[in-house]
Structures are given as C-alpha cells and as structure tokens.
Amino acid sequence: MKAMTYRGPYKVRVEEKPDPTIQHPNDAIVRVERAAICGSDLHLYHGMIPDTRIGHTFGHEFIGRVVVVGSSVQTLTPGDRVMVPFNIFCGTCYFCARGLFSNCHNVNANATALGGIYGYSHTAGGYDGGQAELVRVPFADVGPSIIPDWLDDEDALMLTDAFSTGYFGAQLGDIAEGDTVLVLGAGPVGLAAARSAWLMGAGRVIVVDHLEYRLAKAREFAFAETYNFAEHDDVVVLMKKITDYLGVDVAIDAVGAEADGNLVQHITSAKLKLQGGSPIALNWAIDSVRKGGNISVMGAYGPLFSAVKFGDAMNKGLTIRTNQAPVKRQWPRLLEHIQAGRISPKDMITHRIPLDEIAEGYHLFSAKLDGIVKPVIIPPSA
Ligand SMILES: NC(=O)c1ccc[n+]([C@@H]2O[C@H](COP(=O)([O-])OP(=O)(O)OC[C@H]3O[C@@H](n4cnc5c(N)ncnc54)[C@H](O)[C@@H]3O)[C@@H](O)[C@H]2O)c1
Ligand SMILES: [Zn+2]
Ligand SMILES: [Zn+2]
C-alpha cells in the first residue's frame, strides 16, 4: 500500500509499505477513504515529539471502509463504512469505564499519562496512522462507529478529532449562560471550540490569533468577535478593556506549545530547550480570565514547563481543565447537532490533497500558506 512516512523534521514522503495485517482477533483493517492533517501532526512534523521513528505513518483523523475483521469482532463486517476516533482504547479498563477513553490503560505500555493515538509516534503507542491506503484498527468493536447514511463523509471525518476536540474544549470550559468566552487560536480546534461555545449558552465569543485569514474564518464559521494579537501591544490588557476590566469568564487554549507571540518564551523553549515549548497562550488565558474563572486547555504541551504563571492561576482561584479529547464521548450530541442543521463541521475544510502530494500539504499547513485551515487527504484507492 501507499502510505505517508516520516523521514525526519520537516521531511515526509509517500512510500510503498507492506499492507497491515490482523494481529489480534479484535483488529480490523480499514481502507482509508478520507484522512486529515491535524495541528497535532505539525508537532510531529517539526520533530518536537520524542520517539517519532523514521518510517512511521502519521494520521489520526480518518474514515474508511472495513476490509477484513479479526475472528472476535462482532460489531463490524467487511464493507461497513466507519469513522474512527483518534484515540485507541480498550473500553474496559478503569479509565475507559469512566469515559476517559484518551487515558486508556491498556494501549500504551510506555506511558503513564498518555493513551494510544493513531500515527502519533511511539510516545503514543507506536500505532501507524491513517494517512495511508490501509490502516490497522485495534479494538475494532470499541473505537469505530458505522457512519450513518445521512451523515456527510467530510462531517464524519471532522468528528474523528478536530470538531469533537473543539466541542470538548467548550465542555471543559463549563460555560454558564451568558458567559464571555475567549478562544486562543483560530485553527480547526479553536474554530470548533468557538462555534460550540454558542451551543453551550455563551453570550459573547471572542477569538484571538495573528493570522488574518483565520480570523476571517472565525467570524464566518463561528460568528466570533476577533482580534489580531500582532496588532495590539498587550492582548491581555485588550481583553481586560473589552470586559469592563473584569476579564473573560472562560478561556480556551487552542494553541499549545508552539505558540507565537512572545520572544522570551520562544528563546527559552525552541532555542535553549529550557522548557517543552512556549506556554504564552496558556499564560494569556490565565491573565485574561476573571478571578474564579475557568480555563480549558486543548492545545498540546510537552511534559515540562518552567514559565507557566501558576501562582496567578492559584491566587485568582481559577479552574483549569484539560485532556486529550475522548472523542467518541462527544459523538452522540454532535450527531444530533449536525442532523438538526445547527453545525456543519466540514465547512472548516479548505484543502483536498491527493495522498501522493501530502508533502506539499504538510508544507502549506505548517507554513500557514494559501489560506489553509484544514487539509483533507485523499488516498489513490479511495
Ligand atoms: N486535546 C486534544 O485532544 C487535541 C486534539 C487535536 C489538537 N490538539 C492541539 O490543539 C492545538 C490546535 O490544533 P489545530 O489543529 O487547531 O492547530 P493549528 O496549528 O492549525 O492552529 C493553531 C493556531 O494558533 C495560532 N496561534 C499561535 N500562537 C498563538 C497565540 N499566542 N495566541 C493565539 N493564537 C495563536 C496559530 O496562528 C494557529 O492559527 C494544537 O496544539 C494541537 O496539538 C489537541
Ligand atoms: Zn489531532
Ligand atoms: Zn481502556
């Protein structure tokens, strides 16, 4: 089969790889019909994630058709069309039993914090991902769901991570009716969080980024009030000014460790490696939220940070909640919202790229060129 493979930082290419095979009775092999590139894949692409091995295939957002199932699989048969959550999870361990699918205890023997994620290095279990023609899906009775007939393929694809994660971000913000919600980052996760905040009763939704074309998308897709942080001396002072100097009620960090906007943080992280990335978006969230407010962190962070304003978070009495999204938990409600016409996740998609040209896709997405917001990958056999 053809598959995207990692060759080292900023280098990916399509190669022939052996077809995946059933390795456990509850595996399925899925022929990928659509995959996507996530902002999280950029952390891999930039060489920031430990134990990203040469030859690893990325891709944790994909839908496709079941080709073969293992002998114990009961819920799927060959020919079924499935959407596959980005988390690999067993469904029965202590954590899965409590809905913490992204923290499954049985799928990533190397880690005590992170569960299993398709195509996300050996740090996330070493599973090959879906930016390929075929992919092995472990726990086939647990993760995938059959795509309902009425659901558009591209909406289904956006539910495998980006939209569900944004929705989860808004859920963790514990938004009360009328709240002012600030979303940092106008990538797919931020856009989905902003759109979802309205569904949860927000009275005002603000999106901050420095890419003007993405802020335009935030206005159009998420009906948000937008600010370009590069045009203001201090985005935190700006947030205070526009909220009667109280601060926003809820802030959602949809940026993570590769944040722009602060030279000192950039030097201490990317250059000097004194911390696992720049926590500037998290610090802006801590500073912008009112006392007693909530912070939801969807942006991905490495384990160690030295310059997080934790004392301020403590003294302001903030509630900080975070996790990798347990995507399948969000699906029932999101399917209702799509069916009722309240949301259209596929409207985030800006690019449809053949698998053979995926290297160009990574380049565009990483460099934020050509108005790219969400790239979809189409395998030749789809
Ligand atoms: N928790 C989860 O389950 C989960 C799932 C998917 C993605 N993620 C993470 O969420 C983050 C966003 O993902 P994405 O796909 O939207 O990525 P993306 O790279 O497309 O978007 C990030 C956006 O943040 C903007 N930005 C950079 N610095 C900023 C700052 N200081 N303030 C405000 N905006 C800033 C960028 O310009 C960009 O538009 C990533 O860190 C990704 O790893 C987490
Ligand atoms: Zn992702
Ligand atoms: Zn489990």
Please describe what this structure looks like.
Helix 6 (235-241) runs parallel beside helix 8 (280-288). The protein has helices at residues 39-45, 153-159, 162-172, 188-199, 212-222, 235-241, 263-271, 280-288, 310-315, 331-339, 358-367; strands at residues 2-8, 11-16, 28-36, 62-69, 81-84, 87-88, 116-117, 134-137, 145-146, 180-184, 204-209, 225-228, 248-253, 289-297, 319-322, 351-354, 375-378. It contains 11 helices and 17 strands. The radius of gyration is 20 Å and the shape is globular. The chain has 2 domains: 2-161 and 326-378, Medium-chain alcohol dehydrogenases, catalytic domain (Quinone Oxidoreductase, Chain A, domain 1, Alpha-Beta Complex), CATH 3.90.180.10; 162-322, NAD(P)-binding Rossmann-like Domain (Rossmann fold), CATH 3.40.50. With 382 residues, it is α/β, with parallel strands linked by helices. Strands 3, 4, 5, 8, 9, 16 and 17 form a 7-stranded mixed β-sheet that branches. Strands 12-11-10-13-14-15 form a 6-stranded parallel β-sheet, with helices on both faces. The protein has a two-stranded antiparallel ribbon with strand order 1-2. Bound molecules: nicotinamide-adenine-dinucleotide and zinc ion (2 copies).
